[in-house]
UniProtKB/TrEMBL annotation, chain A:
Keywords (A to Z) from UniProt: Amino-acid transport, Signal, Transport
InterPro entries assigned to the protein according to its UniProt record, in alphabetical order: BCAA_transport, Leu-bd, Peripla_BP_I, TAT_signal
PANTHER family assigned to the protein according to its UniProt record, in alphabetical order: LEUCINE-SPECIFIC-BINDING PROTEIN, PERIPLASMIC BINDING PROTEIN OF ABC TRANSPORTER FOR NATURAL AMINO ACIDS
Species classification: Bacteria, Pseudomonadati, Pseudomonadota, Alphaproteobacteria, Rhodobacterales
Official protein name in the record: Branched-chain amino acid ABC transporter substrate-binding protein
Residue ranges constituting the Leucine-binding protein domain according to the UniProt record: 35-397
GO BP field: amino acid transport
UniProtKB/TrEMBL annotation, chain B:
Protein name: Branched-chain amino acid ABC transporter permease
GO biological process, one term: amino acid transport
Coiled-coil ranges from the UniProt annotation: none
GO CC annotation, single: plasma membrane
Highest taxon of the lineage: Bacteria
Pfam family, one: BPD_transp_2
Record membrane topology: Multi-pass membrane protein
Keyword Iron-sulfur: no
Organism: Fuscovulum blasticum DSM 2131
Subcellular location: Cell membrane
Family recorded in the similarity comment: Belongs to the binding-protein-dependent transport system permease family. LivHM subfamily.
Keyword terms: Amino-acid transport, Cell membrane, Membrane, Transmembrane, Transmembrane helix, Transport
MF (Gene Ontology): transmembrane transporter activity
From TrEMBL, chain C:
The keyword Membrane appears for this protein: yes
Species this chain originates from: Fuscovulum blasticum DSM 2131
One Pfam family per UniProt: BPD_transp_2
Location(s), subcellular: Cell membrane
UniProt protein name: Branched-chain amino acid ABC transporter permease
Lineage of the species this protein comes from: Bacteria, Pseudomonadati, Pseudomonadota, Alphaproteobacteria, Rhodobacterales
């Protein structure tokens, strides 16, 4: 038992010593290029851990590239990762810790929308820029504050709106939706239903599944027989069960066309036994997992840097499938930070307000190694970025890109003007 | 879907839920019944069973049924050994104090979850069923393996019943359950009985994990639901009553299935939860429990 | 007298800490004090009266929503919201108790667990009103208390301190009163308590209402002080947390819940700094602590040194 205690006590002392050192350091080193510290709120444990691991890998890869190219405004960059346990209460504490304890210049990286919602108020109080990689509609809806931005990934409202025309034109007009009974699912419910109606289609049934559920078959009979398209999106560890049970339920009988969000299969190999019935079905992808034949010139360099092969799996373990459709957001957010810091002439925490203003002034983010998912347009008023979306079809067990949307298709009227709010 | 086939599916699903509940709860029924301690880590033993099954089926070459059979043997043994160790190092030293045991098993839960996250990873991974059989009715398809789980639950429960009523070990456990001081006075080594019961309970949880993992997936957080549901089943059934555990699993599983026919999923879940809670409100000792704390 | 002096010293020390601690630690201390209010509420039911509940997340959530929803939808201020939180927690606990107190022991544990689970799902089901799992950020107007902005450091700390101190001293007075002895009698031997002319059901219901009110107050305080409400506060974790604080600090001691909350918070902070596998450290330390102090830290101290500690 003492063995357990001893190393931790020693490490504690070491930690305390390092803390003192860190306090003394800036005073001594002073003007010498002190590193820019970026706090990263990481889903290392909890339900978001699959995403968190890849977010960490992608951000670390971008960090290396940035530092190799001379850092930000000539200063080296550091990322401080801190686990938020995918929990909103801990999330707020982590924002606090990264800002006040670790001395980070800003905080980024959150995916799950309840953690964003729980953390953003604290970021606003601390007046620290908080850049989320969540795809939630919380930022653009106006629910948050001047300090919270989403510059790395298109929000779910825009994603969904661009899917409806394609679904209506190619798969069918009578849609049944199956989605988790929480915010992410509700965004799908609300915006897809609306977008489908605009296309002359109709959502004939909405089946919201409670997140505590681990078995789904009993709800499938609620899918009306006249359904032409089954729109499905699930998140969390039970997603694979959901897709497998759907396959068992329809079996060899007639089935509607399937359209899903790849969130259901992030970090899951599409060739997994039991998923055969997904063959031929379509998925939204934020960034095509399997490298398309017509991929842009920077795609290969991005994959190589992150350590992902052409199938979207880790180069060291083909079974370790990435969360490819989302993780680019951390990469692009880091380059967005670099862009804004250099534009603002950022020197330290005193310039945080100037930094947010510089971010709000950014509009076009051209395609390049900085933005490998595609060109984007940032809306400084709503703090939300907009980019292209992709639709892929499962062919021989692989996601093959079949359609790309334009940025304009995803735009919608501003719901908020954060620039009119006080800091 | 017409009402008839819908009801058929709801009943089949209810039966499978009942089987899953009964399997997950059988180990807890023993531990809780004999030792009267709240083992918060029970769900993690279930998780370990599923995770070990993933490792084992990945390593054993040959047909799926063979790899699965190896997992059915290996996982419960490994987890039972781990539980025996935890008993010797921690629970015994706490003299099975109910409150201290809660804290200790919460600690154990954290350690096991972290170990699974570190060595197995955060992803949900599938374990292939020992056989691939899909039943096709005119209205819907159904997994043959799910029906096998129902069968397996029956076999496991029958095995425990035989153990408890037909063997000397079972007699000793029942004697300890009734009164541990009297059992000690009669020369029963209560410490060994407790260690054995705890290990057996953990092994059964792991066995449940192995049997159930082909219809869900192995995931490091999968232990939470079985833990809560097992407690519910064991208490509703009546503490220490195997028959009660079975009946409670059937009641909960079937009511869950049938209620889900008439309401939207979340509302159905709320109603089913309240309904089951009401069983206990109006029959505090559980369905087959005797009136005692 | 000595007892009051030592507990008043704790209160004074916490007040001083608000001015001495650097902002990061002060904010965390404010969080800890709010959570300690929750744990003290839990301790009334579990530690003193022996009601093992796994449903206190429901009462905490009742408080956070009773306070948060009127702030969010109708622009209520923080003072009435805190009162609504207190009432919300108490009322929900009362209704729960009317049904759940028909049971005892482990059955009580399971019934409260299931009610809390139903409560969590209800928050999701009415997501249009409650914001569902994502929850909502409380607008600034609802975070003003008598002209003080609770989103700033000192007013937040002092509010948390005031609520903590009130609950702390009220608990001390309660457990040292005649009713406090009734609570312990119910825990130790319900039959004997009955023979002494106590109606166990009514007494336990009263305790549960008080316990729920404290939990609800803590929930409301968390909402207005930290600006967020969401359904995750109604999940089983938030039923286990106060139990863990109480057991770690010492069940049935007035200061135990505070001590447990401080320890758990510090443990998670330190473990996170040591390793990314921090959960393992937390688990191991819990096991070690309970081996040395099976009745919690203050429980162990009471057994060895301070016999009369309430």
């Amino acid at each position: 038992m003492t063995n357990f205690l001893m190393p931790s006590r020693r490490a504690l002392l070491k930690g305390a010593g390092a803390g003192l050192l860190a306090l003394a350091l800036p005073a001594v080193v002073g003007a010498q290029a002190a590193p820019i510290k970026i706090g990263f709120q990481l889903h290392r444990t909890g339900i978001g851990a699959s995403y968190g691991r890849w977010y960490e890998r992608t951000a670390t890869a971008a960090l290396k590239l940035i530092n190799d190219a001379g850092g930000i405004a000539g200063r080296p960059v550091e990322i401080v990762f801190e686990d938020d346990a995918t929990d909103p209460k801990r999330g707020a504490e982590v924002v606090d810790k990264l800002t006040q304890q670790a001395g980070c210049d800003l905080v980024m990286g959150t995916l799950f929308s309840h953690v964003v919602m729980g953390s953003a108020p604290r970021a606003g109080e601390l007046k620290v820029p908080y850049l989320v990689c969540s795809e939630g509609y919380h930022v653009a809806s106006g629910a948050l504050n001047r300090w919270t931005l989403q510059p790395g990934i298109t929000d779910v409202r825009a994603q969904i709106s661009t899917m409806a025309p394609w679904v209506a034109a190619n798969l069918g007009k009578k849609v049944t939706m199956v989605f988790p009974d929480y915010a992410f699912g509700h965004d799908h419910r609300d915006f897809f239903t609306k977008a489908m109606a605009e296309q002359g289609g109709e959502v004939i049934a909405q089946i919201a599944i409670p997140p505590t559920e681990t078995s789904f078959t009993r709800y499938f009979p609620q899918i009306p027989a006249e359904t032409e398209v089954l729109y499905h999106v699930m998140v969390g560890p039970a997603v694979l069960t959901f897709v497998k049970e759907l396959g068992e339920f329809y079996g060899t009988g007639a089935k509607p066309a399937l359209f899903g969000f790849v969130d259901s299969l992030e970090a899951v190999d599409t060739a997994t036994p039991g998923l055969e019935f997904l063959e031929g079905s379509h998925f939204w992808e934020g960034h095509p997992r399997v490298k398309p034949a017509d991929a842009g010139e920077h795609e290969a360099a991005y994959r190589a840097a992150v350590g992902v092969d052409d199938n979207g799996a880790s180069v060291s373990d083909a079974k370790d499938v990435s969360t490819y459709a989302h993780m680019f957001s951390t990469w692009e957010t880091l380059y967005f930070i670099k862009n804004a810091m250099e534009a603002a002439g950022y020197t330290g925490p005193a310039d945080r307000q100037k930094l947010v203003e510089a971010m709000e002034a950014i509009t076009d983010l051209p395609y390049g190694l900085e933005h490998p998912q595609g060109a984007k347009r940032f809306n400084g008023k709503t703090h939300q970025v907009f980019g292209s979306q992709y639709i892929s079809q499962i062919q021989s067990g692989k996601l093959i890109k079949v359609h790309a949307t334009t940025i304009d298709e995803g735009l919608y009227p501003d719901a908020v003007d954060y620039t009119a709010m006080s800091f | 879907m017409a009402f008839g086939p819908f009801l058929l599916l709801a009943l089949m699903e209810g039966l499978v839920t009942a089987a899953v509940l009964a399997l997950a709860a059988s180990g807890l029924s023993l531990v809780f019944g004999v030792m009267r301690v709240v083992n918060v880590a029970h769900g993690e033993f279930f998780m370990l069973g599923a995770v070990i099954a993933w490792f084992v089926t990945g390593m054993v070459p040959g047909p799926a049924w063979l790899a699965f059979a190896v997992a059915v043997v290996v996982a419960p043994l490994a987890v039972a050994a781990l539980a025996a160790l935890a008993d010797a190092l921690v629970l015994k030293r706490l003299n099975y104090d109910p409150e201290a045991t809660i804290v200790a098993t919460i600690g154990l839960l954290y350690m096991l979850q972290q170990a699974a996250l570190t060595f197995y990873g955060p992803d949900a991974r599938p374990v292939a069923a020992p056989f691939d059989l899909r039943l096709q009715t005119p209205w819907f398809g159904y997994s043959g393996y799910k029906l096998f789980v129902v069968l397996a639950a029956g076999v496991v429960l029958a095995g425990i019943w035989a153990l408890m009523t037909r063997t000397k070990a079972g007699l000793v456990m029942r004697a300890t359950q009734v009164d541990r001081d009297v059992a000690r006075a009669f020369g029963i080594n209560v410490d060994r009985v407790y260690m054995g019961t705890f290990a057996l309970g953990a092994g059964l949880a792991a066995l449940a994990g192995v049997l159930i993992v082909p219809i869900t997936q192995a995931h490091y957080l999968m232990g939470g639901d079985p833990l809560l549901l097992s407690f519910i089943v064991v208490i509703i059934g009546g503490l220490g009553s195997l028959r009660g555990t079975l009946v409670a699993a059937l009641v909960i599983g079937l009511s869950d299935g049938v209620i889900s026919m008439f309401f939207s999923p979340t509302l159905a879940k709320i109603l089913a939860t309240l309904l089951v809670a009401m069983v206990l409100v109006f029959r505090p000792q559980g369905l087959f429990g005797t009136r005692s704390p | 007298m000595k007892v009051w002096a030592s507990h008043l010293a704790v209160v004074a020390l916490l007040l001083a800490l608000g001015f001495l601690l650097p902002p990061y630690h002060a904010t965390n201390m404010a969080r800890i004090m709010v959570l300690a209010v929750f744990a003290m509420g839990y301790n009334l039911a579990f530690g003193y009266t022996g009601l093992l509940s796994l449903g206190h997340a429901l009462f905490f959530a009742a408080g956070i929503y009773a306070a948060g929803l009127p702030i969010w939808h109708w622009g209520l201020g923080a003072a009435p919201a805190l009162i609504l939180g207190l009432l919300g927690g108490g009322i929900v606990a009362g209704v729960t108790g009317l049904l759940a107190l028909r049971t005892a022991g482990v059955s009580f544990m399971i019934v409260t667990l299931m009610f809390a689970q139903a409560g969590y799902l209800t928050l999701l089901y009415f997501n249009g009103v409650t914001g569902g799992d994502e929850g909502f950020a409380l607008p600034a107007s609802g975070r003003m208390l008598f002209g003080a902005d609770l989103s700033t450091d000192l007013p937040r700390y002092l509010t948390a301190w005031a609520l903590f101190s009130a609950t702390f001293l009220a608990t001390l007075a309660l457990v040292r009163s005649r009713f406090g002895r009734v609570m312990v009698a119910l825990r130790e031997n319900e039959e004997r308590a009955r023979m002494l002319g106590i109606n166990p059901f009514t007494a336990k219901l009263a305790v549960l209402v008080l316990s729920g009110a404290a939990s609800g107050l803590a929930g409301a305080a968390y909402g207005v002080l930290f600006g967020y409400a969401g359904a995750s506060f109604a999940t089983i974790q938030y039923s286990i947390l106060p139990m863990l604080y109480v057991l770690l600090g010492g069940a049935g001691t007035v200061a135990g819940p505070l001590l447990g909350a401080v320890l758990m918070f510090a443990l998670i902070e330190v473990a996170n700094d040591l390793t990314s596998a921090w959960l393992f450290i937390v688990g191991a330390v819990l096991v070690i602590v309970v081996l040395f102090a099976p009745k919690g830290i203050l429980g162990a101290l009471r057994d060895r040194f301070f016999r009369g500690l309430p």
